[in-house]
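Handout, section 4.2: multi-component inputs.
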Amino acid sequence: MHTPLAGTQSGPATDPALDAWRQMNPKQQPSWAGTPEHARVLSELGTLPPLVFAGEVDVLKSRLAAAARGEAFLLQGGDCAETFSAATADRIQARVKTILQMAVVLTYGAQMPVIKMGRMAGQFAKPRSSDVETRGDVTLPAFRGDIVNGYDFTPESRAHNPQRMITAYNTSASTLNLIRAFTQGGFADLRSVHSWNQGFMANPAYHEYEQLAGEIDRAVHFMEACGADFEALKRAEFYAAHEALLLDYERALTRTDSRTGLPYDTSGHFLWIGERTRELDGAHVDFLSKVKNPIGVKLGPTTTGQDAIDLINKLDPEREPGRLTFITRMGAGKIREALPPIVQAVRDTGAQVVWVTDPMHGNTITSKNGYKTRRFEDVLDEVRGFFEVHRSLGTVPGGLHVEMTGDDVAECLGGSDPVVEEQFDSLYETVVDPRLNHAQSLELAFLVAEGLARR
Ligand code: PEP
Ligand code: MN
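Output:
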């Protein structure tokens, strides 16, 4: 018998506890269970190599533990729904670049390490409020993300097709490969990232950030003048995250860590449970309670303090540093009332979670011309509310979670170089939720950096 490589996992983990979710009527699953094709795909997925290693996942957990203590800040960003067709070199690179650019600004504002994480290399499954979509007099299954069905509004495309799980795995692998090359191969050197930000500052619309941008510029030049040229300047740690929605897929990629014998979901470093699937006795919470990855849970405005405590007890009974992140998505008009009782309840138990704000999902509106959109001002106001609440309670605002892209799309309204509704017809591309474009993402980073400098 050969000796497995340290941290390498081959074949799905066998612990029966990892299958308990199957008896729990999991929500938001495709209708393909029981077909021979489905069984064949799952057995193939089970033989494919892990996308991430347990050792990397453990390093991330230690970084998140620092964020929970207020010694690091987490930046999570990427598409609402990745698509197979947009997994091109240019677009992946633009997104990673934008996240790195945001991270430099945030690092300066926070004066602490920023953990960089993409909603990338696996963000292919979407929960939907309705199972079907009707256009005119045609009703078809709703689009559930490229891992389940196609976006085109035809019966063939909208049929749930298990073979798409293999394409999702392959697309995740090639995306991750490019991210690793880009962030580890010297292209993401802090000095290049800084020079990209100078391109952004050349637009006079952003003159209010000149002081902060100038300070960062002087800091970079100071390091250069001192001859600072250490490895951390040349490489960036970058982690992959997605919503662990499709439990069959996540289960097939769950492997036993050869070092410890413990199960890790190797589809991504960090996995989160969405607002629609976070019930305490539900399948998603059960499955993720059994893997060792750091886990996020989205919390909407109806969450109670007791809900949060129950989730901690189920998902992090050992109170393991870095294990649990709460991603709050309240809405700008609600966060100042809805968040304090939850944070207080958690604080009073002594549990240390990472508190992250998702200022996108509570602020979705429909534009006059019929597009799903968000106002930059509302996004910013929710972030401000998040900092205010944590400042007043003495707790740690640990991170930011945004839907964004590196491209010049028009999907969210506003910003200093404003996006207006009239641009939607030509520049609106997202298949699910609207994303901040490249410039709006950077502007948000500047505004959050100012907030971090004051926290
Ligand atoms: C999402 O992150 O795209 C999403 C569906 O979020 P939530 O679960 O918070 O609604
Ligand atoms: Mn979304």
